[in-house]
Structures are given as structure tokens and as C-alpha cells.
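I would like you to sit down with the record closing this message with an eye to the fold:
=====
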Amino acid sequence: MTAIGVIGLGNMGRGMALRLIGTGHRVAGFDAAAETRARLAAESVDVAESIAGLCASTDVLILSLPNAEIVEAVMAGPDGVLAHARPGTLIVDTTTSYPETTRRMAALAKEKSLAFLDAPVSGGPKGAHAGTMTMVIGGETADLARAEPVLAALSAKRVHVGPVGAGHVAKLVNNLLCASHLLTAAEALAIIRGAGLDPAAVLAGVNAGSGRSAVSEVNLPNWVLNGAFNSGFSIGLMRKDVGLAARLVEELGLDLPMATQAVALWEEAYAQLGAGTDFNAITAHPDFSSSPFFQEKSR
């Protein structure tokens, strides 16, 4: 049986570890926070006390970490994965990371006879627990085939989008689109309510036409119109992701005014609503800033 290790046991890593255990896989985990390790140990996860201890008996290593900088530290630090993983270990990075960091870590991994896939995920903690996430994957076809039994337990849909790093490009594009769709959805709701109509009824019409999106079909009914705002994904996380997309746009030398405006508005949301606020709340707080965008909506 393949031995799977999970580094990063927060909301997503915890969900993936428990999902893999529930589907009969042998799983161990590690997290830098002692309290997180203790909590997962209480949930019957075999928890290692160090990366070295985890790597000693791992065939497939899943990374679920907050950002690219932490991925680099976990991979290339003095007590990191590159120093301790056994030759032949397959590393699957599910973090929403930066493509250049991914390519650099993959090159270092190859020097150590390790394989590397970038497989960022969509679907949130609920999807991680249920195994219904979507993965966009970058890497070699042979490595993907080797990872398939593990990835199939974690996700309902897997799309191989290109070489190492391509998965993280696709994820940044996806999240920039989602962030932008939430902003246009906020304006759409302002129009609907301004016209004195029922948002749910009008959105049923929109979702039957070409203006629909995952935001109009999923986010608005599940977390906005009902006032729940409990998707499990925060403004702070979306601000991080659109910031990474902006960095990629700049490095590519592109002039994308709509993306630039979206990034600025998410920065304002972060400053005014707070990092921990559910990201869908950007649709429900039209007057949180002095931006002309929000001034228009608040009149």
C-alpha cells in the first residue's frame, strides 16, 4: 500500500488527510504548529513530529500550505523535504502557489531523484472532506499516472494543463476570474434590487443564459442571497491569490486594466472588511470604501 504524507494540516490539509484515511489509504501528517498536530492526532491521524520523520516512510507527499514562501521553506529549508525525502518520492503541491517557485522547487526535486506535480485545488474544506475537489495539474504524464489513485480519492475532476508550473498558472487565472465575477455580481445585484425585483428570480433567468458563471450559479445562492457568508474561503486568501495573479501579469509584461482594477478592489475589501471575512461578503458591502465602484453602488 502506498504510504501518503500530508504536510500542512489546516482546513484543507486536514480534510484531505481524513478523506484519504476514510478511503482506505495509509496516511501520516505533519504541521509546524504543535496544537494542530495534537488536534489531528485526536482525530486518528498518524502525526509525525518533524518533516524528516514524515519523509522517512512516505511514497507520496502532499503539500497543503498557505503560500509560495512557505512551500519554498518546507521544500528547501535545512530540515525540509529535499534534505530528507527518499529517492523516488512523488511530491504533489496542492497549495495555491507561484508558478516560478513551483518550477524552481521541481528542478531541485529532480536533482534529488524526486518527482513533482503542482495540483492546486478548488472546492474548499467541504470538498476536501468529501473528495469532490477539482484539481488543475502541471507535471509529467508518467508522474500524474502514478499519482492518480491518490488524486482520484481527493477529487471529482482532474485536468492536466501542461508541464510543471502550469497548474499554478491555471489556478491563478481561475481565481482572478472568480474574484472578478464576484465584483460584477455585486453590480448585478445592485441593478436587480434597484429595479425592485427578486434577485433569486432574476438570477434563475441569468443562469439560463450566457451571463451565468460559477458565482451566479453557486456562490450567490449558497452564500450570498441567504446571508450565510460561510464558504470557508476568506477575503485574505482571495486577496493573496489575486495578488499573485497581478505579479504574474507584471512579469509577463501585460497591460490588463480590468485585472488591475479587480486587484485594487480586493485590496480595499481586505483593508475595510478584514482578512478573515468570507470572500463572498464583497457582494454585500457596497459602501466599505471610497472607490468610485462602491460609491456608485451605495447611492
Remarks:
- The beta strands are 3-7, 26-30, 46-47, 60-63, 90-93, 115-118, 121-122, 133-138, 155-162.
- Residues 288-299 have pLDDT under 50 and may be disordered.
